[in-house]
Write a structure and sequence with these properties.
Blueprint (H helix, E strand, L loop, with lengths): L1 H17 L3 H12 L2 H17 L9 H19 L2 H4 L12 H9 L3 H20 L2 H12 L4 H8 L3 H25 L1
GO molecular function, one term: sigma factor activity
Family: Belongs to the sigma-70 factor family. ECF subfamily.
Protein name: RNA polymerase sigma factor
Length: 185
Amino acid sequence: MDKHLGDDDKAARFEQLTMPHLDAAYNLARWLTRDPHDADDLVQSAYLRAYRFADSYRGGDARAWLLTIVRNTFYTALRDRKPQQADVSFDEALHGMEGDELLAQQASSDPAAIMASRDADRGVNQALSQLPPAFREVLVLKEMDELSYKQIAEVADIPIGTVMSRLARARKLLLSYLQRDMAGE
């Protein structure tokens, strides 16, 4: 019976540690996989792995610890798959607006503003999906998950200087993709 109480305590501690970061984990997973269903699977696998190794957590930034597990789970799965399965195509319909953003735009009375905003979002999402994974990863962690350089370095297991370099290059590439797309219209 003591074992079950220990399991309950472990589950409660794990939930307290990780659940506040579920949205960040899903956000990273979605941008890594570029598919919401694959992102759900990735987060589930990462949470199972995190639960299994929760006893090895030694404190510190729980969000960075969890995002590291999400990232490593993704790259492990990617490495273990055949090359043709690793290429996940980008589907704008699956990455469209959600939740509060959709409600806010529906509340707007200016159809032209709604369409312009949707076009801008679509353009940014398409440009972001074209970035190489290493650049997309640091850009998502910095701009969407609002991690510090130190946290990104921890998650991606790279030096802080590499984080800054990749982030600068990612922003430059993203801008060039956006400019190219705008010139093509």
